[in-house]
Structure formats: C-alpha cells, structure tokens
C-alpha cells in the first residue's frame, strides 16, 4: 500500500464534505427538536433528514482520523513515541476542549450546561474528548496486540469485538456518560475500519462494489430515520460506516481526487476550527431574541440561513486564530 502525498487530496475532499454535513446538521437542530432547550416548532422534514446527515458527517470524520492514523503509523513510521504522540493529541484535542468547554459553561447558562458536563462532554465538544480517548486506546492496542503485525483474522476479530462492545453497552448498562466513554465506544468501530482500510487497501479499489455499498448505506440510513428510529448510535452505525468507507473509495478513484482548489484546501485546513466555533455561533444566534423570533417564523428557509452564518463566521474566526501562533493551539 502506497499513498503518495500528491494523491491525498481525496482525504481533504472527504473531510470538508463531512465538516459541511456537521454544520448542516447543527443548522437543523433548532427545527428537529434535538435541542430541547433551544427549539422552534418541529418540522418533520428536518427531523427525518437531520439524523442521517449527523451520523454520516461524524462517522466519516472519525473514519478519516482512523485512516490517517493508520497511514502515518504503518506507512510513515510515525506516532511510535507514545509520550510525544499522546502529548501532541492532548494539546490538539483536550486543551481546546477544556478552554471552549469552560467558556461555554460560564457564558451560556441558559443552554443548560453545567460543570458536570465538563467530564461527560460539553455540547459538540464531546467529539474532541472522544477522539482523544480513541487515540489512547489505539496506543494500548498497538502495544498489547502489535496491531501492525497482526493477521487479517486478528484484525477482523478486534473489529467484531468493538461492535459487540457497542451493543452490549447499549443494552445492559445504565448509560453512564463519565469521560464520554459511551461516545468513544460508539465510534471505535468507525476508527478501526479506517485504520484497517489504510492497512489493507491497495491502489485499485473495486469502484462498482463501493458504489452499490454507498447507495445501500444511504437508503438504509434514510429508511431508518423515516420509520422513526432516533437512536443514531446503534442501528445507524453499520450503514454509516459503509457510506464512509465506500465514499472514500469512490472519491479516491474519481477525478475529484486530483481536484485542486484554494477554497477547498482552506476549508480543510480550518475544518477543526470551524467545527469548534460552529455550534457556539449557532447558540449565540438562537439566544438572541430577535434572530430567534425571525428564524422561528421561517421554518424551511431558516436552516439554510443558519448554515450560511454558522459556516462563514466560524471560518473567518478559524483563519484569524490560525494566523496567530499564540492562540492557534486553541482550535487544534
């Protein structure tokens, strides 16, 4: 398996797509009833399509993280120094988590955020804590099992066990959210699929099979949402991973994989910053009485207006933060 640097543009394309899906999902939460403390009249259309959009966006982001970790670890020989690796991930993920988490707790009491949430996951920032915990687990896996030298049988067993843990946790536990462990268990399978794809994929993927898996995954996700299944962390998990995996194969083997764009590359560079600022901007927009009232009366145009505002402003903020070496670490 060889991935040349000039052929990694497909990762940027996929990451930007997943980020935009997450921004779109947050733009619909006001109308889908997701945020019980901030919501308008519930619109069935947004309620149905918001769950698949959320699960695909987040799963793809985690899948990409697993793929890049596998590529850098297996092909480039990086991340071998455990102390350096974990310190770097703590700086990029947990420092922004604590900084923005504490800021949101202090400044947004009406959003029902308490200090307890700092240890369970503050709003959208839970994603940062979850990723850090997965990286810690991968270090454990690599030292216990020597995963880079394991066989396909062992790797497949690890993947199956990760799914089993997900469903066991869902069905027999009382769902303790301490340290965000529930979210971590939900997303480990997606990370592992990305890691094993980096380990076993070759330059020639089967595009025909990937296309069919992508369609099956999309239809299944929207079908589950249409019949009213709201638990996006269990039944939605497998089709979402299929969409992420097949989506990467399709993008990698299309003309998009060599597409160069300053806008695309800039969005990719600022994707984490946009994610961090996005929900904060949405909250500030909805906590303003005038804009809240306006958006409450525009049930079908509202999500697109929120999308534009909550993409452009976070994008500008992320660019500004990245230009200053003293504060750039606050957005990873």
Describe this structure in words.
There is one protein chain. By secondary structure, the chain is mainly alpha-helical. The chain has one domain (5-331). Helices cover 70% and strands 0% of the residues. It contains twelve helices and no strands. It has helices at 9-32, 44-75, 82-107, 126-144, 152-172, 181-200, 207-226, 237-252, 262-269, 271-287, 289-297, 302-322. α6 (181-200) runs parallel beside α8. The model is unreliable at 1-6 (pLDDT under 50).
Broad shape? globular
Q: Main β-sheet: number of strands, strand sense, barrel status?
A: none
Listing every helix as H and every strand as E from the N terminus to the C terminus, the arrangement reads: HHHHHHHHHHHH
Low-pLDDT residue spans = 1-6
* Whole-angstrom Rg: 20 Å
Taking the alpha carbons of the first and last residues, their distance comes to 29 Å
Name the helicity range.
over 70%
Number of helices: 12
Give the percentage of residues in beta strands: under 5%
Number of domains: 1
Mean pLDDT comes to 88
Report the structural category.
Answer: mainly alpha
Q: Count the beta strands.
A: 0
């Amino acid at each position: 398996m060889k991935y040349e640097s000039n052929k990694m543009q497909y990762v940027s394309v996929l990451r930007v797509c997943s980020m935009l899906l997450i921004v779109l999902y947050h733009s619909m939460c006001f109308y889908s009833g997701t945020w019980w403390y901030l919501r308008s009249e519930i619109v069935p259309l947004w309620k149905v399509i918001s769950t698949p959009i959320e699960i695909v966006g987040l799963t793809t982001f985690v899948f990409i993280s697993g793929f890049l970790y596998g590529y850098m670890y297996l092909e480039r020989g990086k991340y071998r120094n455990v102390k350096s690796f974990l310190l770097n991930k703590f700086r990029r993920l947990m420092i922004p988590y604590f900084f923005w988490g504490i800021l949101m707790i202090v400044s947004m009491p009406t959003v029902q955020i308490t200090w307890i949430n700092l240890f369970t996951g503050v709003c959208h920032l839970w994603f940062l804590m979850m990723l850090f915990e997965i990286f810690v687990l991968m270090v454990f896996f690599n030292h216990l099992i020597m995963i880079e030298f394991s066989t396909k049988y062992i790797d497949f067993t690890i993947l199956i066990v990760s799914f089993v843990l997900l469903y066991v946790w869902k069905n027999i536990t009382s769902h303790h959210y301490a340290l965000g462990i529930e979210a971590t268990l939900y997303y480990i399978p997606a990370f592992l699929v990305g890691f094993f794809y980096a380990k076993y994929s070759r330059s020639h993927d089967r595009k025909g099979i990937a296309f069919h898996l992508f369609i099956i995954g999309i239809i299944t996700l929207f079908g589950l949402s249409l019949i009213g299944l709201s638990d996006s962390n269990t039944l939605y998990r497998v089709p979402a991973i299929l969409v992420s995996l097949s989506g990467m194969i399709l993008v990698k083997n299309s003309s998009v994989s060599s597409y160069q764009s300053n806008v695309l590359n800039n969005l990719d560079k600022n994707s984490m910053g946009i994610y961090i600022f996005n929900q904060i901007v949405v909250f500030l927009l909805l906590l303003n009485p005038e804009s809240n009232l306006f958006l409450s009366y525009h049930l079908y145009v509202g999500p697109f207006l929120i999308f534009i505002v909550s993409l452009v402003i976070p994008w500008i903020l992320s660019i500004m933060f990245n230009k200053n070496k003293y504060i750039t670490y606050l957005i990873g």
